[in-house]
Specification:
There is one protein chain. With 208 residues, this protein is an all-alpha fold. It has nine helices and two strands, in the order H-H-H-H-H-H-E-E-H-H-H. It has one domain. Strands 1-2 form a two-stranded antiparallel sheet. Strand 1 and strand 2 form a beta hairpin. The longest helix has 25 residues.
Amino acid sequence: MEDLENRIDLKSELLRKGIHLSSSVIPLSYYFLDRETEIYFLSVFSFLLISMDATKMRVEWVRKLYLKFLGPVLRSHEVDNKKLFFTGGTYLVIAFLICVIVFTKQIAITSMLVIVFCDSAAAIVGKVYGKHFIRNRTFEGSAAFFVSGVAIILLTPKVTPYVSEYYIALGALLLTTAFELLPNKIDDNLSIPLFYGIVYTVLIKIFL
């Protein structure tokens, strides 16, 4: 979701979220791949991205080349070379890997799609239409986050055959929308899918 302390212009935000949305190929691929294959793929991808982040912080020519192509879509903390900060994309892939390892296939897919589509909708709507602020977020962005999440819940596979699971998924989404508004030093790309997946899993164990 849009963070007022890390704003970039609308054109760059759209480009950033376009890249973000392209990561939907990972949860969509999980529909067709088995868990072991997905874990292997994401482990390799995570290693490559972590290595790239570490290299660009320590090798000047790599850093310059990286910033030349991706600089306009990076947040301020992602270009800070004083410490090793992962980019949002690295956190996202790490979160995908953890989701696949920890959650059932259905919950993992939904959790991944929530961060891909809900976060993108919230950031764009918040930047274009956001007028009512909640801390460093906007009400309009949060509403977009929730509404897009409802669409994802209706379209994704469920763990059980019970209709009541949809209400559980919606409850987890509502709590995740509220969670996103809280001050949080952990990158949203990591915290949101894991929070949603954990809440979804716990609620299913309690109520179903």
